[in-house]
Structure formats: C-alpha cells, structure tokens
Amino acid sequence: MQIPRNFSITLRLTLYFSIAMTLVLYSVSGLLYSTMRNQLSQKDENELRSTLQFQQEIATTISERQGPTDLWQQELFEFVAHQDRLALRIISPDGKVWAKSKSLQIPEADFPAPSREFKYSSWHNRSGDISEKYLIASTNFVLKDNQPWLVQAALNVSRNNEIIEDYWDRMQIAVALAIVIFSAIGFWLARRGLYPLRQMSREIEYIHAEDLHTRLATQRWPSELNALASSFDGMMTRLEASFKQLSRFSSDIAHELRGPINNLISAASVTQSKARSPEEYREALAAIVEEGERLSRMISSMLFLARADNSREPLHLDSLNSATEFTRLINYYDILAEEKNIHLTSEGEVSFRADPAHLQRLLSNLLSNAMRHTPDGGSVHLEASQDGRNVMLSVIDNGEGISAEHLPHIFDRFYRVDDARSSAGNTGLGLALAKTIAELHGGKIQVTSEPGKGSRFTLVLPQ
Q1: Is residue 112 helix, strand or coil?
Q2: Separation between Cα atoms, residue 382 and residue 372, nearest integer Å
Q3: Could you tell me if 140 and 115 are in contact, meaning their C-beta atoms sit under 8 angstroms apart?
Q4: pLDDT confidence of 420, banded at 50, 70, 90?
C-alpha cells in the first residue's frame, strides 16, 4: 500500500498500525469462525453416526427376542420423539414406508444409497424467508430373518448455521470496533512516541544567524534520534565555521578593496588639486594603473574562488611533464630572480594529468610567494618525484620561513603573515588559490617550514 508522501509521520504510523491490526484481527476471527464451523459440523456428523449405530444395536437386540416384529420400530420412534432435530423414515424389505417422522419432508430419492461405511450428504430447503439445512444418511438394519430394513435419518442443523452466522456477524462488529479502538490507541501512541521529534523541531526553530552555536546532542534524546542530533550538530558546526569564514571574508574584502580604492581616489585628488607637470601626471597615472591592476587581480582571484566553491570551474585535463612545466615557469621568473639575485633550479621528471593553465597558476603562486619571502642571494628549488600513485611537485626556498602559529592559517583568504611587509602586488589570495586548484584536481598542498631556514610547499596529485 502506497501512502502519499505529504502524510504526517503520525498519520503514517497510525495507518500502518491500523492495517496490521486489521489483518491480524480478521485473520484470527476467520480462523475462529472456520474452527467453530468445522467443530459443529463434526459434532453433527458424529451425532448422526452415533444415532444410527445406537438404533441399529437396539433393533438387533429387540429382533433377537421372540417378541412382536414391530417392537423395535416402536422403541426407535419413541427415542426419536424425544429429539427435536432428528427425523426418521423406516422402509420395509418390500419397499413400503413402514413408519416416518412427521417432520421429515425430504423425498426418499434425495437420500444417499446405504453403504457399509457411514456416508452422509447435505440437503437444503429454501422456501421464502425460511432456509433449512439437513444432514441425511441411509443404513440397512439386517434383523434375525436376514431381511434388510432401510432406515433414512435426517438431522436438522439449521440452528447450528444460525449460530455460526450470528457468531460471524457479531465477530465482524467486534472486529470493526476493535480496529477503531486500536487506531485511536495507535494514533495516541504515535503522537506520544514522536514527541521528542516535535521537541527537536521546536529547538531547531529557535536557531538563527546569531545563535549558530546551539547544539542538540547536549540533550538526552531517544537512541533513534541520537544519530540525527549528531548529524545536525555536525552540520551546525560546519555552518557556523562557514558563516564565520564568510563574515571574515566579507570584512577582509572590504578592508582589501578599501586600500586600492583610497589610493586611486587620493592619487586623482592630489593630481587635480593644482596644475602638474607632464612628468607628475605620468607618475600619477602610473600609480592609478598599478592600483587598478591590483584591483583587477584581486577581483579575478575572487571570481575564480567563487566559481570553484560552487563547482562551476571546469577542468581540461591533459598529459603533462614536470620538467617541461618547471622550465616554462623558470623562464617566466628568470628576470625577476636575476633582479633579486635568487638562484632558480629544478630537479626530477614525472608524467601526470592536470589542467595546464590551472597548474601553471598554482605553481606560479607558490614560486612567487617563495621568491617574495626569500632574501637576495637565496635560492628557490623546484622538485618533482613520485610516491606510489601520487605525484609530488615541491617548491623549496631557504628564505625567512613561517612560524608555527601561522601555518594553520596561511591558506585562508586574505591572510598575511606580516601585513607590514606585504607588497602592493600581494592580494592575500595566492595560497588560497593554490589550495583551491589542488582540491579541484583531487589533490592537496602540504607545507613544512622553519623560521630562518625556509619553507617547502608540496603539491600532491593523485594518479
């Protein structure tokens, strides 16, 4: 049976309980009805059989006496006269009806033929509103003169049928009332049993944006709801963390955008305050372009992160070689490295599949971050290796390193270890972008660092 989805759980449980009770009650009542009918039928059959056997014994005993021939018939009818359900017909050996009960209306031809084994059949009489049922049987009484006397017996079982039908009607009424009562009890039990669920629902209704720290598992719930409460608390923990991250991200965006915009406004305002020389105008426009490019990079990075967070950033995987990618990266940063007197090297060659554009962006962010925090005369080393089914691409520097308290946060958006030393070109999103690109590829970024000795960023890509 399919119950509509919009039905409440209480109603569903009540319906299931009612259906189960209906099946049980009707099965039990049907079994009782069938058992009672069979027992009454067996009782009637035994009564008819025992009556004929008893009368045959009486007839045989009387016939062996030297008394009148019709004595056993008289005694037989005297016995029948005391019974209101039994009727007899005695037929002599010459085929004449010797005696018959007044209540016997069944034709001779409808009786079964006599046999050595007891056999009976049913006979129905319907006349208007009157319906009667008889069990009929025939037997031969063989007396001392070896003449067979045919005895036809009919047992009226109509009363038993009335009892059975009345019992069935009463049983149906009782079952219907029981179903109604059990349904009401089932509804009450279902509501009472689901009370903790309604209480949990009320607790959830009170949760709002300023109250995300609420947890359900702190209360005592039935064992069936403990898993739900734990799952809900886990969801709330993730939601609270995401909400805090979003709030912090919004604040960071406002803070980060405010600086370049203020710089643009200041540069334009100062330039407009009085007449300037062409060289001063060029310097002002250069500053404005620099801040505009910084804003453009920041917005581009934020859009990329937003698309990645919503799984809308497509990947175009291709077969790549680490040596080729390292060479391309070193050629791009070679001039900057010469300016800072930083030695760029690479080592290792492995093949893997990744998105070329995204991979270059990731490695570029790691390499530029390493060069930014490596002093003049230092070195940055690119290394490729394979560990089982994972490809390891590492960027290693001997720069200033990162303190242990900053390591858990360096991949957060707009997080900077030292804002005072952050250059204008740093948006605070480089490592966050690198982490997101790694996760898009199903990988991760590992970092080890020691202040004063440098850092090692390793991209782990599954093969």
Answers
A1: coil
A2: 16
A3: no
A4: very low
